[in-house]
Specification:
By secondary structure, the chain is mainly β. It is built from no helices and 38 strands.
Amino acid sequence: MTYSPFGLGITTLGTSQASKFVSVDSNGDLIIPDSDKFKFGTGSDMQVYHDGSHGYLTNATGTLKLATETSGIAISIGHTTSEVTVNDNLTVTGDLTVNGTTTTINSTTLTVDDLNIVLASGAADSSAADGAGITIDGASASLIYDHTGTQWEFNKNVEFAGKLLPNADATYDLGSTSLGWNDLHMGSGGVINFANGDVTLTHSSNTLTVAGGTLATAALTASTGTFSGVLKTDDTTDATTTTDGSLQTDGGLSVAKDAVIGDDLILLSDSSVIHFGGDKEITLTHVADTGLTLKHTATADDKPVTLTLATGETDIAADDVIGVINFQAPDEGTGTDAILVAAGIAAVSEGDFAADNNATKLSFRTAASEAASEKMSLSSGGNLTVAGDITVSGSDIILDDGGSLKEGGGTAAFTFDGSGNVTKIGQDSPSNGEFLKYDGSKWVAAAATVSGLAADDISAGDAAINLTTTSGNITIDAQEGDTDIIFKGTDGSSDTTFLTLDGSEAGAATFNSTVKGSVFIDSVEIITNDNVTVSKGFTGVTTGGSNRTATLPAAAAGNVGAMYTIKKLDSGSGNVSVSRAGDDTIDGGTSVVLYHQHESVTVIVGAADTWYIM
């Protein structure tokens, strides 16, 4: 070994190596040649050396510890501009603080045992933390905190293997009024639950089912829809066209069961048709600007159309109205009487219905200045009763063979035989050869005062002529075939034919004017705020707020058939009591009370002491 004043010779494991020196330079630093090592331990387990390129601190056994013996003494590794490389695992038993600008981890998997990762640590507020997040390089994927909405922003899809749950029930929204989601994709059989399943929206076999509640929507568009429950809209918009209303369809509407319409049913098209029946053979068709046509569409023989007015009453009594057809002009601008029912036809029972009785009359009602009341009736027996005059515009009044013209009480005034001959006039039973004469109160059959009279003409005289007989008939006989018997007189200054008995029609009588009798009362009386004794055909009473009495005339055999109408005209609180005279009865009672404005009653003398309500 060569001696050097600055060198220390080294013996390697008992062998002297001339090239091995530990030198000390002028600064006192030890200088060790490359690849020479300081070894520590019995087995030289720890070594320190430099191989000419890198410096090494190695340990073969146990743990290599870089530590201080005193707490709080720091260890600094590396230069401020150099890198420190850990070639194997790094375990930090204390806190790891990285103060550099960028922390780069190139490992395949990063495992963190900590329960919380803090980003933007020390940020003063949300604004300072804006942009904090996680970015995946190469995928352009990021999870970034956005201060503007104080929210997390994902720029890629998010997949969940479990449930996506809010941290509080019924508190947070999925989306907002300004930021809504686009499509929601769910698998077949998927269910959307509301209120813990109280209401569910379920998909199955191309069907979306709402269960447990009601589907309410402002607008619903679909190609088809099937509802197992009720389809309901709470919107109250009236439908006036095909494009408004709370329920609209651009096509037809099919209803398998009953349809209930709460208000108007409007058919907008001219000639619109309502069909009835499985074969739709009965139709009700709109005729533009005219009205309606009810039709049976079948073309086979004996296929009439029938309109039946049916009542649901189960106990029909006398005078019950079974059905009515009324005619009215309710929109007439003058109001009052003008808007009342002007005419009508009613079917009225003539007695209690039973297994062997359904006697009914037809009541024909008209009005002049009133609600329509009965003016003519056709009884169940075919008898026609007319309250006013009968005007015949045709040539004849035709009766059955053997018929008669009778007064209101039913007594025959003219009786005919089967050959058209008048067999009886009045109540006398004439004898052969008697003539018709007036006895001061009525026409009777009596014998002529001459044995016979034949003349071509009897000239007008200057005094009355009486044709009388004390016995036998007075016969006016026009013997030539089809000759008439004509009764004439002077109306004012006009020569007028009053009555013609048509010889070619078996004596059919033609009256030039109305046929009147004592039972037809055709005058009007209006009583203002007072009681009244009824004497006119129509009596109108105003009450002036006090109860009033309208007393009927006595019902006698001589005025059977006389009819009177009494009407309350005003809206005052007073009523009008229509009362009997003496011991008369009105439908078995003593009076009829009219309470309401325009309420009226029509009564008729049925017999002595007896009034009937029409």
